Amino acid sequence: MSARIVSTSRAGDAMRERSAERAGDAEAPLVVRVHADRERQRFYGIGSSLTQSSAAALAQISPEKRREVLARTFGSEGAAFALSRTHIASSDFSEESYVYVPEPDPSLESFTIQPDRDNGLLQLIQDAQRMPGADFAMISSPWSPPPWMKDNGKLYDPENRTGGRLLEEHYDTFARYFVKYLEAYAAEGIDVWAITPINEPQGNAGNWESMHMSPEEQRDFLRVLGPTLREAGLDTRVLIFDQNRAEMPEYTEVVHGDAEAGQHTFGTAVHWYNSTFKVYEDVLEAEHARHPDKPIFQTEGTIDSMSADSSCDGVCLEPPCGCEELYVWWQNDAWYWQKEATDWGWDWAPPEQRADHPKYSPAFRYARDIVVGMAHWIAGWVDWNVVLDKRGGPNHVSNFCLAPVMVDGPTDTVYYSPTYYILAQLSRHSRPGGVVLETEVSGPEGVHATAIRNPDGSVAVHVFSEAEADVSGVVEVAGERFALETPAASLQTLVVAP
Are 354 and 489 members of one domain? Predict the structure, then answer.
C-alpha cells in the first residue's frame, strides 16, 4: 500500500507532494482516525463558476494564457473541477443586465440566448468543456426572470430594497422559460445537470438582479415547474433554496416536506454568507436528519465586499485608502493567509450580527468550509467566479470580489492565488462518485479533517490546521498509521492507494 501527502500552506507550499511514512505505535499530539466502515454521503465533486464576468476577464489576456487558465481549472491535469455553476440571463457578475425575452411575450416565441453568444458566456462554457479530460456537471440559476413576469416590473430596485416577486399568473411562463433555456443550451452542447428556481430567494436588498420567493411561493412554483420539466422530457435536477445555511431548515421544510413539490426536488443549495468563520455544522446535520435523501450542495461562496474607492480607478479594502494601497491581494500569497479580508457583514450588518463577521483569512475560510462541510453532509461544493480581473470584476454594479484566479490584461499576467491551490488540491482528491467516510480528530483546537473513498479505491484524508503552531500527528486509515507533520496554517491531503 503506497501513500503520499499533498500540501498547501502559508509557508509557501502549493500542492507540494512528498511520500508518506508509516508511524509507529507511540502516542502523538494529533490523531486523525478514519472509520472506513462508516460511510456517509455520496460526493459529487468540487468546482467553480463560469460567469459572464469571468468571460470578460479572460478576454483581457492572450488566447494562450486564456487556454492555460481553463486547462488549469477544468482540465484533468489541472484542478479537474467536477462541478460548475452559471447564471440564467444576467447576474451581478455580468457586464450589463439582460434577459432572454425582454418584451412581454407569454408565448416565449421571442426567446433567445443570443446575449450569451454576444457576451462570451456561451463560448466560455464550451471552451471549458473542450479542455483535455474536462468532465463537469453544470448547475444553472436565474437571478431574476424578465421584469414583465414580476410584480415590480424591474430586474432590481435598490431604492425600495427589493427584487420584486413572481406574479402567480406567470408561474407557468417562468417554468416554460426554464425549458426554453435548457433546450437552447443543450442544442449548443451544454447539458445542464441541475437548476435552482431562483438565486437567493430571500433577497439582496435589491442591489442587483434578484427576486424574492418565500418558501410557500417556491413550493407552489415547484408544483408547476416539476411537471413542466417532465412534460418536456427533461430530467434536470432541481436544487431548492440557494441561499445562506442558517435559514435553510425552515425554508426547506416547506418545500421538501410538501408531498407534491417534494417529488420534484433533488436536493438543497446553500451559500456561506451568514458568517466569515462558521460552517453551521449543527444546521447541516439537522437538515440531513430531516431530509436524508436530499443531498446538500454549496453553490456559492466568494471573498466579497472589495469596495470601490471613488477617488481612484481601483478598489479599497477599508475606505478611505490611498491609491498605493489598492489591490493588496494582487500576487500577494501572504495576504490570503492573514486575517485581513472583510465581508458584507463587516460593512453593513446590524450590530447584533457583526460578531459573526470578523476579519478573516481567505485561505482559512475556503479550507475550513470545504473540509468541515464535507464532514457534515455537504455533497458538492462550488465556488463563485472562477476568474476575475485584478480589480475583482468587471461587473455592472461594482460588486467587486476575488476569484481563485486573477488576471491583469495590460500585462497579460495570470495569478493563481492560494485559494486556487486549496480548491485544486481538494478537487483532485475528492472525486465525484466517491463516498465520504466518518472521521474523528483528537488533538489541539483548530485542526479539522474529513476523508473520502474515491471511485478508484483510493482514500484521501484532508487535514486542515488553522493553528499557529506546527503539530506532530498520525493518521489511522485502512489499518495503517501514517505520520503527518502538520505545519501551522496548512491544508494537507494524505492519499492512500488501494
Answer: no
Q: What CATH number should be reported for the domain holding residue 456?
A: 2.60.40.1180
Q: Output DSSP code: residue 316.
A: -
226: left (phi over 0), alpha (psi -120 to 50) or beta: alpha
Q: Are residues 387 and 455 in the same domain?
A: no
Give the Cα separation of 430 and 432 in Å (integer). 7
Instruction: Please indicate, yes or no, whether residues 56 and 30 belong to a single structural domain of this protein.
Output: no
Phi, psi of 341 (to 5 degrees): -75, 150
Q: What is the pLDDT of residue 324?
A: 44
Q: Are 481 and 32 in contact (CB under 8 A)?
A: no
Nearest-angstrom CA–CA distance, 51 and 130: 17
Confidence of residue 325 (pLDDT cuts 50, 70, 90): low
Mean pLDDT, the chain, rounded, equals 95
- Tell me the whole-structure pTM to 2 decimals: 0.96
Residues 391-413 pLDDT 10s? 899 999 989 999 999 999 999 99
The domain boundary residue, chosen from 428, 457, 472? 428
Q: Residue 248 sits in a domain of what CATH number?
A: 3.20.20.80
Which pLDDT value is given to residue 305? 85
Domain's final residue, options 428, 454, 473: 428
Nearest to 179, CA basis, from 106, 117, 233: 233
User: What's the one-letter identity of residue 379?
Assistant: A
Find the domain containing 268 and state its range.
44-428
Q: Which of 302, 276, 246 shows the shortest CA–CA distance to 356?
A: 276
Return phi, psi of residue 297, to 5°. Answer: -120, 130
The yes-or-no verdict on residue 51 having pLDDT over 70 is yes
What does the block give as the cell for 293? 435523501
Domain count, the chain: 2
User: Own/partner pairs for 104-107, CB < 8 Å, 24+ apart?
Assistant: 104/148, 106/170, 106/173
Q: Is the pLDDT of residue 323 over 90?
A: no
Kindly state whether residues 104 and 50 are assigned to the same domain. Answer: yes
Q: What is the separation of C-alpha 177 from the centre of its chain, rounded to a whole number of angstroms? A: 25
176 vs 256: CA distance, rounded Å: 22
* CA-wise closest residue to 368 among 462, 484, 438, 262: 462
CB contact set of 437 (below 8 Å; sequence gap of 6+): 34, 35, 36, 38, 39, 40, 451, 452, 453, 459
All three cell numbers of 428, joined, read 483532485
